[in-house]
Inverse folding.
């Protein structure tokens, strides 16, 4: 049985708690932050990626996850992405005045990642690329792709991502950084909109 507790903290911040038989997760997110992060998932490389995500997106982020790592990393990475997506969706509320669309390319040495996002309210994920090694530390490389998919589905994003490179550490880190920069751009307030929702439908 899945239990969710979602709290709206400020205009652009949220706290989400999720408990299942596989993970217990507590996330707080402030979209208009300074890039400060406190993260503990039990997976060192994943912690590093989430800290990088916060730093480069200028999101204040706390993540505390107690997962079934005695099995593998799947539930921890997937469920953190689910909760983080829920936090973004809650923090953005009606999405009034946001830029909505953004795209970024981020290099890390030989690797290059590209991300295009529409904060659309219509979740969709597409990915193009392969990871050069099967794992980085205690994180399975393909879980980076699954993280992005779960984030997109739960934050109601249309998200297209691609990556090339020769080193999985670089490839995954470039993906997390590119996603952060793109979400920072797309969720910024465009003062020219005067608080209107950026859609001819009147809502997202």
């Amino acid at each position: 049985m899945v239990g969710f507790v979602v709290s709206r903290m400020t205009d652009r911040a949220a706290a989400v708690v999720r408990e299942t038989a596989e993970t217990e997760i507590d996330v707080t997110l402030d979209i208009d932050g300074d890039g400060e992060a406190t993260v503990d998932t039990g997976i060192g490389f994943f912690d590093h990626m989430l800290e990088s995500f916060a730093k480069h997106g200028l999101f204040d982020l706390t993540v505390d996850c107690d997962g079934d790592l005695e099995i593998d990393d799947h539930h921890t990475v997937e469920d953190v992405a689910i909760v983080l997506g829920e936090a973004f969706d809650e923090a953005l509320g009606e999405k009034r005045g946001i830029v909505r669309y953004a795209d970024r390319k981020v290099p890390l040495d030989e690797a290059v990642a590209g991300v295009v996002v529409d904060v659309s309210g219509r979740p969709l994920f597409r990915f193009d690329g392969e990871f050069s090694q099967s794992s980085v530390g205690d994180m399975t490389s393909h879980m980076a792709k699954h993280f992005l998919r779960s984030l997109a589905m739960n934050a109601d994003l249309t998200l297209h991502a691609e990556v090339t490179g020769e080193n999985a550490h670089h490839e995954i880190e470039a993906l997390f950084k590119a996603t952060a920069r793109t979400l920072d751009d797309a969720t910024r307030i465009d003062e020219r909109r005067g608080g209107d929702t950026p859609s001819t439908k009147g809502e997202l």
User: Anything to note?
Assistant: The radius of gyration is 16 Å. Residues 13-193 form a domain with the Ribosomal Protein S5; domain 2 fold (CATH 3.30.230.40). The longest strand covers residues 3-10. The mean pLDDT is 95.
